[in-house]
Amino acid sequence: MSERAVGIVVHNGCLLAIHRQKAGLDYYVLPGGGVEPGAT
Question: How many angstroms separate the Cα of 22 from the Cα of each of 1, 12, 16, 25, 28?
Answer without folding.
Answer: 19, 29, 20, 5, 11
